Amino acid sequence: MMISEHRQHVSIRERRANSLVTLMVRFSLRLFRILGKLVPFVILFLRDRRRFLFFGRSRSISREAHEQRARKLRDVMLALGPTFVKIGQVLSTRPDVVPQVYAEEFVTLQDAVPTGPYREMIPALADDVGYHSYDDFDPEPIAGGSLAQVYRATYQGDHVVVKVRRPGVKDLIETDLRIIRRLIPLVMLLAPERLQFSLRNMADDFERIILEELDFEREARMMAEIRANFERDGNEPVVIPRVYHDVSSGRVLTMAYVKGTKVTDVDELEADGHDPSEVARNVANAYFTMGLEHGVYHGDPHPGNLAVDEEGRIVFYDFGMSGRFTPAMQNSVVNLYLAAVNRNVDGIIDELVALGALDPDADRAAVGHVLELVIEDLEGSETVNWQQIISEVTGMLHEFPFRIPPDIMLVLRVGSISEGVLRQLDPEFDFLAAAQTFLREHGFMERAARMKLEEMRGELEASLWALLRLPTKLERELDARAEERTQAIVRRQQQDSLSLGYALLAASSLIGTALLAAVDLTYALIGLGVALVFIILFLTSSGRLSR
């Protein structure tokens, strides 16, 4: 029995040791692959700053050269797999980190991931929900992404779509995240100082975002919440597919199949009797409603995730990238927009700080000057769009500790991508004008005005109470000052009395010394010493008094 238990413990230790070795080998191989792919680009970017890496002047690179480099970097990200595809997608929404030419190229990563064979998906289906749970399952994927693939099936007589996480993708991403955490200090060392604030925060945010997107149970909860919000409103032309929770898990998500026309198929929409301009307004209003009223919103509005059903309702697919606003963030977003409309630079700075986009210790005067320049530039433009505003603001705030928090990043992504989608539906669509109309029609303007009035009233009440308490405080202060003066007078009188005592004693000692000199010289010298002591004490006390 003892021998058997010993062998079992040895076997467990050996398996752990082998597993550790396997992880170390996998980590090392992956690290070398990543470095081999990305180091050439790092060298190129460093040479742009210093022609000879560590010295020399910066190089001037044409836009065509940057476009070519961006395409190559995009292909490298695609080759490195889901983590770097997702990094590219995130960077496509970060004009505070990458130049616009790279952001535009990284957007195409969304639709560039090839689908994988169906047999690789069977283990997740079998282990999590039971392979035979579905009445029928079409092995041909209808959509694919960096993290999952989507299939059509039938469940309990209902047509459904099944989203299945790619095999091994979680282990690969966790390995990549460990590598990225170790490379971040080196990246920070090489990155320009103006980017370090954004990069440091983006690295922390990215890990949370990608791990959340891997969790299909979270996605199911977000879908259910957003669906319930719209159902509660009752009159919104929006469809959120129902989730079948009994055949869903962390790796498998089963949803109702909702047929619709792709939102950018303008000809087909018109053939079905739908007005593309009205569709554009409905999409925009749905996003405004989710973000500003419900606080939970769909964060991936590329054309493949938006459709229009037979009744003209907007259908949303894929809630992996979804976000949440707190009431404070909702108020800050509305106030930021209102401050921008009113050209209130101080208000803009206050809301940027409240949203966590700007460091509270930033030089407000310098930031305000930059924002004034941005407003002047935009006012001088004939047409102003969302993307232009974001590019202007982030471009000019690069020199400051400015970052885009993950939730605000999703908002910018929604704004920039949906604006492009909506202008395919209606070339004249004005995203900012639509936002202003929504805010006005839904009472946000009045709500913001009321909040401002309440804030001013609160400040006025506080000022009045302070004013009412002022006489009491003033009386206490005067009493305290009078008490201090009384004590000072007493101390001065005591000091004067002490000095006068020393003076009298010194005079008495001198007189005594003079009398003793005629009798005995020894006593006279002693008396003189005593007199000198009293003279010194008198001078010291007098000097302390004068100070």
Describe this structure in words.
The protein is 66% helix and 7% strand. It folds into 3 domains: 114-258, 2-Layer Sandwich (Phosphorylase Kinase, domain 1); 261-442, no CATH class; 487-546. The longest helix is centred in the C-terminal third of the chain and has 74 residues, at 444-517. The protein has helices spanning 2-49, 63-80, 82-91, 100-106, 122-128, 169-190, 193-214, 216-233, 266-271, 276-294, 327-341, 345-354, 364-379, 386-396, 406-425, 431-441, 444-517, 521-546; strands at 136-137, 143-144, 148-155, 158-165, 238-239, 252-256, 261-262, 296-298, 306-308, 314-316, 322-324. Strands 1, 2, 3, 4 and 6 form a 5-stranded antiparallel beta sheet that branches. The model has no long low-confidence stretch (mean pLDDT 78). It has 547 residues and is of the alpha+beta class. The protein has 18 helices and 11 strands. A hairpin with a 5-residue loop joins strand 9 (306-308) and strand 10 (314-316).
Calculate the terminal CA-CA distance, rounded to whole Å: 94 Å
Return the structural class. alpha+beta
DSSP helical segment count:
18
Overall number of strands: 11
Beta-strand portion reads 5-15%
Keywords: Membrane, Plasmid, Transmembrane, Transmembrane helix
Organism: Salinigranum rubrum
Family: Belongs to the protein kinase superfamily. ADCK protein kinase family.
Pfam families: ABC1
